[in-house]
C-alpha cells in the first residue's frame, strides 16, 4: 500500500554534496562524494565528513527515542484491551517498537556515540523525539488509530529510509518497515471491527480520528521551506523525499482508506485536485506543533518522567548483565591462557 515511495526518482542535483569545511581531507572527501553520487552505501568503517556523521547521530537517535517513547501511549492500554486476542496483538506491537528502538540505538552506536550519552540526552530533555507521542490515548479506538495513522505515517516516512546512504540505518529500516506494516494493518482491522459495532463504538473511532489526524500530518516535520535540515539531508542521500512530499503521499493514500472505514477526516478543505493529481488539504497548526516539540505538549512531562523512572528501575538489570559479561570474559581469558 505504501511501497510506491520506493519508486521516486532522485531529482537532479539532490545528490550533489555541498563543499565541506576546508579542514576535511580533499581526497577522502572526493571518495565520499563519489560514493554518494553513485548511490553507494557508507559503512561504519568508511571515512565520512563530520557533519554527515553528526546529522546521522541526530536523526537516528531521535528516531530511536521516538520508538521507545512511542511504546508508552499504547502500552497504557495493554491491561485494558477488550479481548485476549487484542491484548496479544498489542503486546507484540509494543514489544516490536522496543525492538526498533534497540536496532536504532545500535545503528547510532556504529557512528561512535555511546548509548548512555544518547539516553542522557533524552532523559534531560535535550534530545527530540516524535511530537505525536506527547498526546494522550483516551479510549480504545485511539489504539486502532495509532496503528492505522501513526504507523501509516511512520511507514510512509521510513520506506525511503531503506535507501538511506548510511548502511546500518538503511538495513535496520527494512526490518522495521515490515513490522510497521503489520502494525498498520492490525490498527485498521481493529477499527473496521469497531465501525461494524454499536453507534457508541463508531463515535469513539470518529473522535479518535478527529484528535489524531492533524497531529499525524505534523509528524512529517515542518514545511519544506521551514525545514533547516532537509536540503543537506537530501543531498547526502539520508532523506530521499521531502517532508511536504511525504505528507502529500500519506494524505493521498489515507483518504480512500478513510472512505472504506466510514470515517470523516476532520478537514473541510480536503478535496481532490484534478490538476495536481493530489488531495488539497487545510492548514496545519505549526504553533501547536512547535510548542509540543519544545516540551510543552499535553504529555511531554509525563512521558519523560515515565522513561526516566523505567531507566532508573532497570539499573540493576544493566549492572547484572555487565557483571555477567565481565565474568564470562575473565573465564574465556583464563581458558585461553
Ligand atoms: N517531532 O529540518 P527538519 C514511529 C524537528 S517513529 C519532533 O525537517 P529533519 C514508530 C527535527 O528533528 C516516528 N521533532 O528535520 C511508532 C528538527 O530538529 P533538530 C519517528 C520534529 O531531521 C509508531 C526540526 O524539527 N520517525 O512513529 C518532528 O530533516 C507507533 C526541523 O525539522 C523518525 O524519526 C516531529 N514530528 O526531518 C512507534 C523517522 N519533525 O534535530 C510507536 C526518521 C521535525 O534540528 C508507535 N526521521 N522535527 O533540533 C526523519 O525522517 C526526520 O528526522 C524527520 C525530520 C522527517 C522527522
Question: Keywords for this structure?
Answer:
globular; mainly alpha; binds Phenylacetyl coenzyme A; disordered N terminus; 63% helix; 2 strands; 13 helices; 337 residues; two-stranded antiparallel sheet
Helix amount, in percent?
A: 55-70%
Kindly state the mean pLDDT as a whole number?
Answer: 94
What global shape is seen? Answer: globular
User: Count the helices. How many?
Assistant: 13
Q: How many beta-strand runs?
A: 2
Radius of gyration computed on alpha carbons:
22 Å
Report the bound ligands by name, code or SMILES.
Answer: Phenylacetyl coenzyme A
N→C terminal distance: 57 Å
Largest sheet, described in full?
Answer: 2 strands, antiparallel
Low-confidence stretches: 3-17
Q: Specify the structural class.
A: mainly alpha
Q: Strand-and-helix sequence, N→C?
A: HHHHHHHHHHEEHHH
Query: Spatial order of the strands in the main sheet?
Result: 1-2
Percent strand: under 5%
Task: Give a short summary of the structure.
This protein is mainly α and 337 residues long.
Task: Describe what this molecule looks like in 3D.
With 337 residues, the protein is mainly α. Helix content is 63%, strand content 2%. It is built from 13 helices and 2 strands. The protein has helices at 26-37, 50-69, 71-75, 84-109, 115-123, 140-158, 167-195, 199-218, 230-235, 243-261, 286-296, 300-313, 315-336; strands at 271-273, 278-280. A two-stranded antiparallel ribbon has the order 1-2. A hairpin with a 4-residue loop joins strand 1 and strand 2. The protein is globular. It starts with 25 loop residues before the first helix and ends with a helix. Residues 58-59, 62-63, 66-67, 70, 97, 128, 130-131, 146, 150-151, 154, 157, 218-222, 227-230, 233, 239, 243, 293 line the site of Phenylacetyl coenzyme A.
Amino acid at each position: 500500500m505504501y511501497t510506491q515511495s520506493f519508486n521516486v526518482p532522485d531529482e537532479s542535483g539532490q545528490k550533489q554534496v555541498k563543499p565541506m569545511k576546508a579542514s576535511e581531507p580533499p581526497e577522502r572527501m572526493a571518495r565520499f562524494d563519489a560514493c554518494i553520487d553513485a548511490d553507494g552505501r557508507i559503512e561504519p568503517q568508511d571515512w565520512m565528513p563530520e557533519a554527515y556523521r553528526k546529522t546521522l547521530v541526530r536523526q537516528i537517535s531521535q528516531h530511536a527515542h521516538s520508538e521507545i517513547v512511542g511504546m508508552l501511549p499504547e502500552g497504557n492500554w495493554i491491561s485494558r484491551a477488550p479481548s485476549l486476542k487484542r491484548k496479544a496483538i498489542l503486546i507484540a506491537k509494543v514489544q516490536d517498537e522496543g525492538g526498533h528502538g534497540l536496532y536504532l540505538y545500535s545503528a547510532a552506536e556504529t557512528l561512535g556515540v555511546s548509548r548512555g550519552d544518547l539516553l542522557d540526552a533524552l532523559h534531560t530533555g535535550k534530545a527530540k523525539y516524535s511530537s505525536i507521542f506527547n498526546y494522550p490515548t483516551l479510549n480504545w479506538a485511539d489504539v486502532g488509530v495509532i496503528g492505522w495513522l501513526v504507523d501509516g505515517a511512520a511507514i510512509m516516512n521510513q520506506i525511503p529510509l531503506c535507501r538511506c546512504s548510511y548502511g546500518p540505518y538503511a538495513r535496520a529500516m527494512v526490518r522495521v518497515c515490515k513490522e510497521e506494516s503489520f502494525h498498520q494493518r492490525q490498527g485498521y482491522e481493529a477499527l473496521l471491527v469497531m465501525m461494524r459495532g454499536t453507534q457508541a463504538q463508531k463515535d469513539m473511532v470518529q473522535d479518535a480520528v478527529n484528535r489524531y489526524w492533524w497531529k499525524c500530518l505534523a509528524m512529517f516535520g515542518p514545511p519544506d521551506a521551514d525545514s533547516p535540515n532537509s536540503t543537506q539531508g537530501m543531498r547526502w542521500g539520508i532523506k530521499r523525499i521531502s517532508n511536504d512530499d511525504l505528507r502529500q503521499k500519506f494524505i493521498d493514500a489515507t483518504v480512500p482508506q478513510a472512505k472504506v472505514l466510514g470515517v470523516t477526516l476532520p478537514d473541510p478543505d480536503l478535496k481532490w485536485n484534478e490538476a495536481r493529481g493530489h488531495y488539497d488539504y487545510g492548514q496545519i497548526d505549526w504553533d501547536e506543533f512547535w510548542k509540543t516539540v519544545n516540551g510543552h505538549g499535553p504529555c511531554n512531562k509525563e512521558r519523560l518522567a515515565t522513561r526516566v523512572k523505567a531507566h532508573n528501575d532497570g539499573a540493576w538489570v544493566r549492572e547484572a548483565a555487565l557483571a555477567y559479561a565481565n565474568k564470562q570474559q575473565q573465564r574465556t581469558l583464563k581458558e585461553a591462557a
